[in-house]
Amino acid sequence: MSVNQQAHTGPPYGQPQPGYQGYQQPAYGGPSLPGVPQSQYGAYNGPMPGYQQPVPPQGYFPSLGFPSKGSPVSLNSDTSSLAPNFIGSLRAPPTSGAPPPASGASHPSGHLAYSQFEHGDVQNGIPASAAPMQRPPASQPFLPGSAPTPVSQISTFQQYGPPPASVQQLRNHMAGMTIGSTAASAPPPAGLGYVSGSFSATGSGLHTPYSASQGAPPATVSEGLPLTQPPFPGHTVSTQRLPTQVPGFTPPPPSTGVGPSSYPPTTAAPRPPAMPGPPLPGQTVAGPPSSQPNHVSSPPPSTMAGLHPGPPMSGLHGPPPPTHPPQPGYPMQQNGSFGQMRGPQPNYGGAYPGAPNYGSPPGPPPPPKRLDPDSIPSPQLNELPPQQKPRHRIDPDAIPSPIQVIEDDRNNRGSEPFVTGVRGQVPPLVTTNFLVKDQGNASPRYIRCTSYNIPCTSDMAKQSQVPLAAVIKPLATLPPEETLPYLVDHGESGPVRCNRCKAYMCPFMQFIEGGRRFQCCFCSCVTEVPPHYFQHLDHTGKRVDFYDRPELSLGSYEFLATVDYCKNNKFPSPPAFIFMIDVSYNAVKSGLVRLICEELKSLLDYLPREGNMEESAIRVGFVTYNKVLHFYNVKSSLAQPQMMVVSDVADMFVPLLDGFLVNVNESRTVIASLLDQIPEMFADTRETETVFAPVIQAGLEALKAAECAGKLFIFHTSLPIAEAPGKLKNRDDRKLINTDKEKTLFQPQTSFYNNLAKDCVAQGCCVDLFLFPNQYLDVATLGVVPYQTGGSIYKYAYFQLETDQYRFLNDLRRDVQKEVGFDAVMRVRTSTGIRATDFFGAFYMSNTTDVEMAGLDCDKTITVEFKHDDKLSEDSGALLQCALLYTSCAGQRRLRIHNLSLNCCTQLADLYRNCETDTLINYLAKYAYRGVLSSPVKTVRDSLINQCAQILACYRKNCASPSSAGQLILPECMKLLPVYLNCVLKSDVLQPGPEVTTDDRAYIRQLVTSMDVAETNVFFYPRLLPLTKADVDSDSLPAAIRNSEERLSKGDIYLLENGLNVFVWVGVSVQQSLIQNLFGVSSFSQISNALSTLPVLENPFSKKVRSIVDMLQGQRSRYMKLIIVKQEDKLEMLFKHFLVEDKSLSGGASYVDFLCHMHKEIRQLLS
Amino acid sequence: MATYLEFIQQNEERDGVRFSWNVWPSSRLEATRMVVPLACLLTPLKERLDLPPVQYEPVLCSRPTCKAVLNPLCQVDYRAKLWACNFCFQRNQFPPAYAGISEVNQPAELMPQFSTIEYIVQRGPQTPLIFLYVVDICLEEEDLQALKESLQMSLSLLPPDALVGLITFGRMVQVHELSCEGISKSYVFRGTKDLTAKQIQDMLGLSRPAVPMQQGRPLQTPEQHIISSRFLQPVHKIDMNLTDLLGELQRDPWPVTQGKRPLRSTGVALSIAVGLLEGTFPNTGARIMLFTGGPPTQGPGMVVGDELKTPIRSWHDIEKDNARFMKKATKHYETLANRSAANGHCIDIYACALDQTGLLEMKCCANLTGGHMVMGDSFNTSLFKQTFQRVFSKGYNGEFRMAFGANLDVKTSRELKIAGAIGPCTSLNAKGPCVSENELGIGGTSQWKICSLDPSTTLAIYFEVVNQHNAPIPQGGRGAVQFVTQYQHSSTQRRIRVTTIARNWADAQTQLQHIEAAFDQEAAAVLMARLGVYRAESEEGPDVLRWLDRQLIRLCQKFGQYNKDDPNSFRLSESFSLYPQFIFHLRRSPFLQVFNNSPDESSYYRHHFARQDLTQSLIMIQPILYAYSFHGPPEPVLLDSSSILPDRILLMDTFFQIVIYLGETIAQWQKAGYQDMPEYENFKHLLQAPLDDAQEILQTRFPMPRYIHTEHGGSQARFLLSKVNPSQTHNNLYAWGQESGAPVLTDDVSLQVFMDHLKKLAVSSAS
Question: Where is the Sec23/Sec24 helical domain (chain B) (predicted)?
C-alpha cells in the first residue's frame, strides 16, 4: 500500500506526503468512530485529548495533535477553571479564541488548520528545509478539504479535533454516524461533508475513518504517522488560535508534533532548528492550547459540557498549570528526540510503510494519490494536494478508541444486570462492572465466546474467518452478590445423563412423553428418565419441578459425583500441599528462605476450605533442596521435626510416609519449629547448584504414596545444573531471535519434563512454580510441568527482599488461598454440527477431547475452538456444555456443568454483529503464542495479520454498504480489532525488544495461555489512568486515557497497569505539592524509583492513589509490580514500551500505522 | 614336666596355642602319614593376667623377607651385641637402645617366660573406636522398643570418646546425622538400589572436593574430621541426642499389606554402612552392628521375596537348587565383607526373629571380618539383651574385650610351611618363603587380617612339614613358629603381640611313640572339625562325612594296636582314646548335619565353631552332661541315653543351649510340690543346684546360650535327646532292658555301633 501510495502521491505532495500516506488511512480509520459512540467519542476524544493536551499544550500540544481533541475538552475546562491556570498563555489563546472564527474559515477543513500550522512551520521552519515546505502544501490541501466540508466551522472543528467535532459533529455524525455506524452507508454522505470533517466524523465509526482517510488522504496526506497526526489535530486547534495569533507559534507545534511522532525524520532536521525559535512561540503556544479550549468550547460548548463536563474539566485543570513551565523543557527534548528520531527513522521505515515515509519524503506522495481517488475529498486534494497530504495524518482521536468503547459499554450496560435467559446474547465487555443473573445460560464469567451467533455452515465460517471459540473459566470467582453454583445430588446412580453422548442433564434437555423420557439437546437421543428423577410436566411441557432443580433452570451448577467418577473407583482423599523450598546459596543469601518460612507460619492457617468447614482438609508437607532433597517429618507426636536427606536424585523416591503430610493444626508446633529452623540450618550453606526435576518427582512420589492429589509450591532460584535427571544447560541465545530457530527458545530443552508432566497429571499433582532468577534459568523448560499440570508460574527476576517481598508474599498468599480443584478433567460437548477441535491453556491432553488438569484454580482459563462438522440450524441454535470433573479442596468429587446456548445465523452480518473482540483477541493471542512453538515468529505475525484482514475484508465485502474502496470500514463489534491486534503483535513474545529476556518471553507466553478475557484485555492494552485527575472524594477511578505518549502531560502523574506491572509515571513538571503529597519528598528529583510501594502519607491525594493501586491489585490474580517512572528517567523506556498506541522501540507499529497497514491488507484482499 | 597333658595346658595358658602334635615328625612323608595335620589352635589375644605390655618397639630381623621378632629362642652374642634370627639365621645388630644388654640385663623379650610378649607402639594417629549401629525398624512394636532400649543402654557402655553412628533401615535406609542441633537429620537411600562406594560417599557428601587435595595435606585431617563428624560422633557429645533419637525411632511407616513381608533393605543398609566407614575411617577399628528382625526382602542382598506365601529357602530348596536369591545375595554380602575387611572394619549381625533372617547369605560378613553373629527369637529376650550387653563387657583390667584390625603374621622355621588358617579372618595374600603350596583353609599367605577379635577368638593354623626324609634334623633340633599379631587395642593403642613357640622334632620311624604321646587329641579333634566344617561350606555334606570317616580310620590304622582283621584286638593308646568319640559326636553335630536345622542355624553354629577356643569348641562337638541326684555330688556323666534316669536332674551344656532336664521322678516330685515343704528342703536344694550352675555358665558365655528348663516327656527334652548317644533306641530297647536310661527314638547309630564299625574297618586288611 504505502509504497504505491507514495508513488501516487509522491509527486504532488512531495516530501510531506510520504509520512502522511502512511498515516492517512489509519488516521482516518481512527477518526471514524462508531456511529453511536461517535458522538460520545467525539466528546470523549475531546476530553481525552484535552487531558493530555493540557500537558502538551505548551510546546507539545500542537505537535501532539492532542490539542484537537483536547481543545474541545479544554473548552469546557476552560470555561470552568482551565483558564485560570493557563491564564497567561491561555488568555492569549482566548484572544486567539477570537481567531477561531477566522480560523473557522480555515477550519472548515481541519486541514486548514493544519495548513496554517504548517505554514507557520514553514515560516518558522522555512529555514529548516523541505519539510516545512511540504507542510504548507499539506495545509493547503486541507483547506480545500475543509472547503468541501464547508459545513461550518464546526466541521472544521470536527476535523481537527474530531473531538471538537464531537459537539457539532456529534450531531451531524450522530445522524450520519448512527446510520453509518452499522453500515458504511451513512459514511459516504458524511464522507463528503464530513470528509474533511469526516476525518473526525467518520461516518460510521469505523467506516468513516476510511472515507475520511480517503478523503482525508488528500488532507491527511500523510498522516505520516500517528504521531504526526496528533500534532495535526493539535495544530488544527492551535492553528485556529495561531492563525490569528502568531505564525511563529505554529512552527513550534509542528516541530513538537514532529518530535514526538515520527515527524522528526522528515521535518526533523528543519524543525529542530525551528524549534528553538518555536520554543518562545511555544510558550505562546501554550497559549494556543488554552485558546483551543476556548475555541472548542465556543463552538460546542453546550454539547460539550453536556457530554463530558466532568472529565474535561478536571483534565484541564491538572494539566494547565504544569504545562506552562514544562514547555521550554519540552521543546528541548523534542530537539533531542529529533536528533534521535533521525536515527530511528530508517528503522521505522523498515517496520512500516508509514515510517519509511517519514524517513523519506518522496515515499509519502504516492499514497496520497491512491487515497485521493478513493476518497471523496479528491477535489480537495486537487485543490491543495500537497498541503493536504503532508498534513493528513490520521487524527489519533478519530480512530477507534478502546477507552471510548470501554466507557460506552460501561455506561450502557453497567447498570442493568445481565440476565442469561436469552439465547445468543452478547454480554457486556469484561471491563464493565455488571451483575449476572443466571437464567439458564452460564455467566460470562464462566464462558465467553468470540461470537454469540454462529454461522450455520462451515462455508460461512470459513468465509468470515472469524474463529469460533469459547474462553472458559470453569471455577471463576463470582462477586459476592452472585450465587455460587448449586450442588446437586442425584443419588447413588449419579447425575442423569444422555445415554448416547453422555451429556449431563441441563435446561435444554427436552422432556417428552409426559416426562418419562427426555431428548438430548446435543445428540437428540431419547433417554428414559430414571424413576427417582421422574416428574410430571406442566402444560408448557416444563417439568413441574423446573424451578426447584438447578440443573433444569440454571446455566451453571454442580453435581455430586459418585464413586464411578473417581480414580480407581475409590473416593479421593483430601488433597495435599507440599512446599518445596530451594535452599541453595542464592536463596539463602537473598533472605528468601527466611521470608518464605516466616510467611508459611501464618499462611498455613489460610488454606482453602470447603464452604463452612472449620478447618481445611488439606494436609501439608515440606521439602527443601539444593543438590539434594530434604524431606521433613513433622508428625504431631514428634518433639522436633526430623529431616531426611535424599541424595539419590537420579532415582527419586519419598523417604517417609507417615509424618510427611500432616494436618496443620495437629502438627502446629512441630511445623513452627521446622520453619524456625530451616533458615538457620542453611544459613551457612555454600551449595550453589540445584536440581529441579527430582524435586517435582519427589512431590509426585509423595502424593502417590499418600494416594491423593495435591499441589506443589516450588520456590526455585537457578538453572538446575546439578547432575540429575532434567539437568539443563544454559542455551540462551539472543542471536536466534528472528531466525527460524527462534522457536527453540520457547521449546523445552528436553522431553524429560513432558513425560514428568504426564505422570504428574495422572496423579493429580499440580505444580506452582515461584522463580527468583538472577540469570537465565530456562523458563521454557522449567515451566513445562507447571504449565501442563494446570499450575502457575511466578517470576521475580533479581529478587530483592526489600522491594519484592511484598509482591511475592501477596502472590503466594493469593496462590495458596485461592479456590482450587484437583485431578480435573474437562470435556466440552456441543450440539451436532460443531465440535470442539482445539484447546489452549495450561493443561495436558491424552486424547483429543478431554482436557486434563492436575489442578485447576479459579484464575485458570481454557480457550476452546470449535469447528463445523455439519450444519447448524437457526432454529435450534448451538449449545455448549462444559463439564468439569474435579476434586474439591475437601476431597469431594464433583462435576461442574456450564451450559451456554448460542444463536446460529445464515447472514454474515449477524455474525459480525454478535462478536466480541476481547474474546477474539484472547483466542488470537493464545493461538499465536502457541504458534511460536512451531513456526518462526514472523510467520505467526503474518498469519495473524492475514486472518484479521480476512475477517475485516469479509465484512467489508459482505456486510458493509457500498462505499469507496479507500474507506476503511470496520464492524462495530470489531472496531478495536486492529488496535488490539497490533498490541498482540507488539507483545514481547511476538516482537521482543532488546531488554526482553528469553525467560521473560517464555514466561509471558505461558502466562497468556491461561489468561481469561479480562486479563488479556488489560495485558495487551494496559490501563492508563491520570492520577492527578482522580477525584479525591469519590471512590471512582479517573477516566482512563489512551496509551500514547501524546496523551501524557508532564504536569501530571499517571498510573499504568497491565496485570503484571503498575507504573506510576511522574511528569517533570508536576506540582511540588503533589509530589510532596504522594511521595513525601519535596522535589521531583528526590523521588526514588527504587520504591516498591507508595509511601503511606496522610493526605487525601496519597490515600486516593493508594486506594486506586490497591483496588487495581485486588482485581488482578497476581500482585503487580509497582514501578515509579520519572519522566526523562532511564526507566521511562520501559514505561514507554507499554504505551501501545505508539511506535515501540522494538519496531512495533503505532496504532495509526498499523491501521493503515491493515487497511492496505484489506484492500488487497478486496481487490 | 610331668606329662604332656600338663605341658599342653601350660603352653596354652602362656601362649594361647594348642598344637595337634607336640612333637613334630621330621619329614614330610612321615608327617602326611600321621593323618592329622600338624596344626595349632591359636588364641592371639588370650587373656594374660601376668603379661604387662612393654612400651617399646619390637626388634626385627633385618632380613627383608623375614622380619621375625627378637625372641627367647634367638642366639644372642652379648659381647658383640648381636643376635641371630632363629628363623632365617640372619645375624642382627641390636639397636642402640640395647647397648646395655648383658646376660644379666636382658630385655623382656629374651626371657623364656616371655615367649609371648606384647608391645605397645606409637604408630599413626590414634583414632577412637567406632561403633555404627545399623538398625532394622521393620520390627514388631515390642521388639523395636526392646531393641531401642538395648541400644540406648549400650551408649553408656561405650568408651566416652568412641565414635558412634546410626543407620536405620526398612523400606528405605536412613543414615542419621548426629551433629545437628534441634532438628534431627538423616540421609535417606532407596532400599532397592545398589550403590557403589563412590556414589554413597557422594550422596553423603563425604567425597572431598579436589581442591583441598592440592592445598596440601595439613588441611586434610581437620577436614576429614569435619566431614565424618556429621555421621559419627563421640558418644559423650551426643549421648543425649542419640538417646532421644533412638527413643523417637518409629517402626517403618510404610504399609505392609496382608500376606506380605515388610520390605527390608538390609543389603543396601549394610552396603551404605560399609561405604560410610570406608569413606571416613579406612583402616581404623570400627564395628558395624547390624540388628535385624527378618530377612532382607528387597534390593541387592535380598534373600526372599515379600510374598509371605513363598517361604524362605530351606536346605531342601538349596539342595534342589531352588533358592533363587541365594547366590546373588551371598555374592553381595561377600563383596561387602571383603570391602569391609580390607578397611579393617568388622560387621556384627544380631538377628532376632522366629523365622530365618538370611544368616546363610550374610554369614560371610561376620565370618570374614571377625564380627559377632547372634541369633535369637526376639530382641525382647534376655538372650539378646545380655548377649548384646556382653559385647561391651570388660576384661579383668577394665578394658574392653575387643580389639580391631589385627594383622596376624606367621613365621616358621625352614622345615615348616604354612598351609592355611581357618577362623574369622581374611587372607592378606602375603606370599613368602614359608607359604606352602598346599592349602588347608584360607591359604596361600602367611598373613591374615582379623578385623575384630576378642580374647577368646581362636584361629586354626595348619602347617606342612616340608623337610625331606633324606635331610634329617639333628638330634635336639627344634622347629619354631612365631605369631606376630599387630592390632588396635580397645584403648586405641596399636599393640603387637608376639608369640614364639618351639617344638622338638622326632623321626617318626624311630620315635613314633614320642610323637604319639605328644598327640593332643582335643586339639586334633577341633582342628579336624574345623577342616570338616570348612569343607562342609563348599562341599556336599556326605562327602565331608566320608572324608572325616576315612581320616579317622586311617588314624586308627596308623596308631591303633591290633591284629589284622581282628576287630576285637583293636586298642588305642590313651592319647588317642577320646578322639573317635569326638568324631562320632562331630558327625552328629549341627556343624556337619543340616537335617533339622535351617540354613541360618547351620550358618550360626558354624560361625561360632570357627572362632571359639578349644574348650568351647569341644563343648560344641561333645556337649557336657552333668547329673544331679541324691546319690552324691553333681558329676559329669556320659553323653548317653543311659544317663537319663528318672531320679536325676541333668544339666547339658551344648554351648548354644543350656538344658536342665528333670528326670521323670524328680519331675513328679516337683509337681507334687515337695520342694515347698520344709521337710524336703534338700529336694529344693537339689532343684536349685543345676540352676545355679547354669547361671554360672550363662554369666560367662558369649553369646548367651539358649536356656531351656524341661523335664521328662517335655517337648523341649528333644534338645537333650538329640545330643545324647542313642545307646537305647526303639530298636534295642527291649534287648537292653529297662534298667537304665530313656530310649531315644532315632535311627542314628549309637557310639557302640560306630566304634564297632570303626574297629572293623581299621583292622581290615582290605583298606
Answer: 520-618
B75 near A CB under 8 A: no
**Confidence grade of residue A992 (pLDDT, cut at 50, 70, 90):** confident
Please answer whether residues B457 and B437 qualify as being in contact, where contact means their C-beta atoms are separated by less than 8 angstroms. Answer: no
ipTM metric? 0.84
| pLDDT the model gives residue A88 | 37
In this prediction, residue B758 has a pLDDT band, given cuts at 50, 70 and 90, of: very high
Which is it for the CA torsion A284, A290, A293, A295, positive or negative?
negative
Which helix (DSSP H) or strand (DSSP E) does residue A347 occupy? Answer: helix A344-351
- Judged by DSSP in three states, B577 sits in coil
The pLDDT value given to residue B2:
63
Residues 6+ apart with CB under 8 A from A940: A928, A931, A932, A990
Q: Which residues contact A127 (CB under 8 A, 6 or more apart)?
A: A270, A273, A274
The residue among A370, A258, A344, A269 whose CA lies nearest residue A19 is A258
Check whether A17 has a pLDDT greater than 90.
Answer: no
Contacts with A1073 (C-beta within 8 Å, 6 or more apart), sequence order: none
* Sequence-ordered list of residues with C-beta below 8 angstroms from that of B179, at least 6 positions apart, any chain: B229, B230, B233, B238
**Residues 670..689 of A with a Cβ closer than 8 Å to B: which?**
673-674, 677, 681
For residues A949 and A1159, what is the distance between their CA atoms, to the nearest angstrom? Answer: 8
- Write out the three cell numbers for A274: 525551528
Amino acid sitting at position B150? S
- In DSSP terms, A577 is beta-bridged to A620, A711
CB within 8 Å: A648 and B180: no
The CA distance from A340 to A311, in Å, is 35
pLDDT, residue B612, reads: 93
Contact A644 B188 (CB under 8 A): yes
Superfamily classification of domain B623-724 = Severin (3.40.20.10)
| Cβ within 8 Å, pair A642-B186 | yes
Question: Rounded to whole angstroms, how far apart are CA atoms A685 and A585?
Answer: 6
B209 touching A (Cβ < 8 Å): no
- A429, exposed or middle or buried, with CB in 10 Å at 0-12, 13-18, 19+? buried
Over the stretch A376-427, which tens digit does the pLDDT of each residue have?
A: 333 333 333 333 334 456 777 788 999 999 999 999 988 889 999 899 999 9
Q: Does residue A701 contact residue A758 with C-beta atoms inside 8 Å?
A: no
- Could you tell me if B186 lies within 8 Å of chain A, comparing CB atoms? yes
- Å between A697 CA and nearest CA of chain B: 14
Quote helix, strand, coil % in chain A, to nearest 5: 50, 15, 40
- Mean pLDDT across the stretch B568-579? 91
Which CATH number is B4-53+116-122+402-512's, of 3.30.70.1520, 2.60.40.1670, 3.90.550.10, 3.40.640.10?
2.60.40.1670
Architecture, CATH, for domain B130-206+228-391: 3-Layer(aba) Sandwich (3.40)
Question: Which residues does chain B have within 8 Å of residue A641's beta carbon, measured at their own beta carbons?
Answer: 183-184
- State the span(s) of chain B assigned CATH 3.40.50.410: 130-206+228-391
* Residue among A644, A651, A658 whose CB faces B190 most closely: A651
Query: Which residue spans of chain B are classified as CATH 2.60.40.1670?
Result: 4-53+116-122+402-512
**Whole-model pTM?**
0.76
The 10 Å Cβ neighbour count of residue B202 is: 18
Residues of B in contact with A681 (CB under 8 A): 180, 183
The C-alpha atoms of residue A552 and residue A160 are separated, in whole angstroms, by: 56
Between A643 and A35, the higher pLDDT residue: A643
pLDDT in tens, B246-275: 988 888 888 888 999 999 999 999 999 999
Cα–Cα distance for residue pair A75/A237, rounded to 1 Å:
11
